[in-house]
């Protein structure tokens, strides 16, 4: 696992900033509504899990964009996300109207 370098140390305890899940989705334009319903169902399951912070689904303003939807979610740790994914495999694997490409990120700069 990648070591993150922007730790905050308080009372001999290291607090890591949350991890950012960015998942880009290729969804046929005619399947957009079905995809949003799947995302809402998946999010309802995941938001109940330990370590979940928040999630937002973004939709492209360009109808021809390769990635019509982008999900950005924050989790306390990569481990909490992995546990939530394992526990909710059935709903996550029920995606039929598209294909996602998820990856974890850390914030390296902000303004």
How would you describe this structure in keywords?
111 residues; alpha+beta; Alpha-Beta Plaits; 4-stranded antiparallel sheet; two-stranded antiparallel ribbon; 3 helices
Descriptive overview:
The longest helix has 15 residues. The protein is an alpha+beta fold and 111 residues long.
What is the mean pLDDT?
Answer: 88
Measured on Cα atoms, how large is the radius of gyration? Answer: 16 Å
**Spatial arrangement of strands, main beta sheet:** 4-5-3-6
User: How would you spell out the order of helices and strands?
Assistant: EEEHEEHHE
Overall geometry: globular
From the coordinates shown, what is the CATH architecture? Answer: 2-Layer Sandwich
User: How many domains would you count in the coordinates?
Assistant: 1
Q: Helical residue percent?
A: 25-40%
Share of residues in strands: 25-35%
CATH class: Alpha Beta
Largest sheet: 4 strands, antiparallel
- Terminal Cα span: 27 Å
Task: Determine the structural class based on helices, strands and strand pairing.
Answer: alpha+beta
Instruction: Kindly report the CATH topology.
Output: Alpha-Beta Plaits
Number of strands: 6
List unreliable stretches of 5+ residues: none
Number of helices: 3
Q: What would you call the quaternary organization?
A: single chain
